[in-house]
Amino acid sequence: MLNETALAAFFHLAEANSFQEAARRMGVSNASLSRYIAQAEAQSGLVLFHRNRNNCKLTDAGQAFLPIARALREDIGRFTRDVDLLRDGKGRRLRVGCGPLTTRTVVAPVLKRVVEEIPELAFYLDVNARVAPLEGLLSGDIDIFIGDLTHTPEAENVDILMMEKRSVMFVATPDHPIHDLGACSIADVVSYPLASGHLHRHWRNTFIKLLGGDQDAQDKVNALPQIESDDYSFLIDMALTGRYVLGAMEETLAEFVAAGRLKVIEMHTPVIWNICAVKKSGTSSVGVQAFWDHLRAFGVNPVAA
Q1: CA distances, 102 to each of 58, 189, 200 (Å)
Q2: Which of 257, 271, 47, 287 is nearest to 171 (CA)?
Q3: What is the C-alpha separation between 269 and 186, in angstroms, rounded?
Q4: Cα–Cα dist 91/289, whole Å
Q5: Which of 59, 166, 181, 189 has CA atoms 20 to 30 A from the CA of 116?
Q6: Mind telling me which Pfam families this protein's record contains (predicted)?
Q7: Which domains does the chain have, with CATH numbers?
Q8: Whole-angstrom distance, CA of residue 222 vs CA of residue 62
Q9: Is the pTM of this model over 0.90?
Q10: 287: part of which helix (H) or strand (E)?
């Protein structure tokens, strides 16, 4: 049977089709990834990938192995959860994964309500917009994922809640020249150095569409942002230098706007997030269920997966 590291390497490379990109997503060197893939092939007894200079794709055997590997990942996740429940005793441990836009807008207010019901809840939050979040959900590393809906197109046996539509806020220091423009378009915003969290596919496609949808728009968006981080404390510090326009949610910026250190940029067309919450169907942990029930207050009707 594949060990968890070799299994994770297999999924990263199968998705990325590139050793360099898969290694980046996994947070290891190319050499380490190559070693893990070799372990996966040795442990399975199969040649899983075609390798060449430009890409790395699954062989026929690799394609056939993919659903088997998914089943193994689910079994490992189920084992991990069951052991955690035994260790925990009452299922009062909760692990949530999310991108940086939702930490203060969704996760914090929901968690505050949950801990009123379950004061002894042990909570872990993984904030990361760059990794494939469903992997963590399906493997059992996290119990609930809150993030962009485009991460979930091939999800099976999951429950999905759509979050209330919200606009992203753009700000800059009060003396920033962008405020002289009056109401701005997204083209005005990105004509200045931009600081933001990771711009995944939804945001890039949204920006490209708002910029006209042509090759020039794609080129501009591909160069964004100038400062990228999932740490909004760092991004706010950079915005306060007066050089950068910053995109974030209202709750993240409220104290700095109220203090007059950052000023809201008026927008012609709001930029809307595409956020959902996802958990595996049938999850019965006390902590997971309590968090999910309170999430419903922030969402609309469940989505069939």
Answers
A1: 35, 22, 15
A2: 257
A3: 8
A4: 10
A5: 166
A6: HTH_1, LysR_substrate
A7: 4-71 (1.10.10.10), 90-164+274-303 (3.40.190.10), 167-272 (3.40.190.290)
A8: 32
A9: no
A10: helix 286-295
